[in-house]
Amino acid sequence: ETGVTQTPRHLVMGMTNKKSLKCEQHLGHNAMYWYKQSAKKPLELMFVYSLEERVENNSVPSRFSPECPNSSHLFLHLHTLQPEDSALYLCASSQEASGNSYEQYFGPGTRLTVT
Amino acid sequence: GQNIDQPTEMTATEGAIVQINCTYQTSGFNGLFWYQQHAGEAPTFLSYNVLDGLEEKGRFSSFLSRSKGYSYLLLKELQMKDSASYLCVPFGGGGNKLTFGTGTQLKVEL
Predict the structure, then answer these.
(1) Which H or E element spans position A20?
(2) Distance between CA atoms of B28 and B25, rounded to whole angstroms?
(3) What is the Cα–Cα distance from B5 to B22, expressed in whole angstroms?
(4) Is the CB of B95 less than 8 angstroms away from the CB of A106?
(5) Cα–Cα distance between A38 and A66 in angstroms, integer?
(6) Number of Cβ pairs closer than 8 Å across A and B?
(7) For A107, which residue in chain B has the nearest alpha carbon?
(8) Residue of B9, B96, B102 to mutate when probing chain A, most A C-beta within 10 A
(9) B16-74 per-position pLDDT tens digit
(10) Rounded-to-integer distance, Cα B34 and Cα A1, Å
């Protein structure tokens, strides 16, 4: 399998549920990202991991908890979400070198609906 | 911070040429990406400019003028499938953070 994959593609959860989104990249990249995209809004960067260390956390509520066990896998753990958290959640990866940024490759996203 | 200015919407005819302009202000500049995003789908990488000038890739070309803080994406021989949002994404100041705006929604008509 190639590129960036995300599972599940669609998720409906209640506000009291706990679920996890999974992202896997097969590109040999060393940086991974979580973005949120709400309807008709720009992509919002949530978290950045570089070499498995979190390097950015854009004031994301604690009900979103990222995990990066290795350079190929990234998780987003969800608990006690709100209806306004319903959105498309996109994972991306890129190759970082000497602080320079290279193009990010996106997964297909997980369409999340919180009821 | 970053400030990105590109038209919200554009309409063009199948087979025609369209140019999507982008002006930007960044605190430091390393390069500029153009991405394409179809509704409900993930963005896909189109081009990357670091130096001034024109980069051509098939039907798509991207131009950059760093001194003017200006870039454009040129799409030739438009096809219906080119109807999508086009995102101008400058990045600067080192690191790996890209800031995405709302992009330009291009509609290709018959």
Answers:
(1) strand A18-25
(2) 9
(3) 6
(4) no
(5) 19
(6) 52
(7) B42
(8) B96
(9) 999 999 999 877 777 899 999 998 888 998 998 989 999 998 999 999 999 999 999 99
(10) 26
Cβ-contact B44, B87 below 8 angstroms:
no
Provide the CA B39 distance to its chain's centre, in angstroms.
16
Please report the pLDDT score of residue B41 as a whole number: 87
The residue among A79, A115, A114, A112 whose CA lies nearest residue A9 is A112
CB B64 within 8 A of CB B81: no
What is the C-alpha separation between B3 and A115, in angstroms, rounded?
35
- B30 at the A interface (CB within 8 A)? yes
Report how far apart, in Å, the C-alpha atoms of A56 and of each of A48, A92, B41 are: 5, 14, 24
The single-letter code of the amino acid at A58 is N
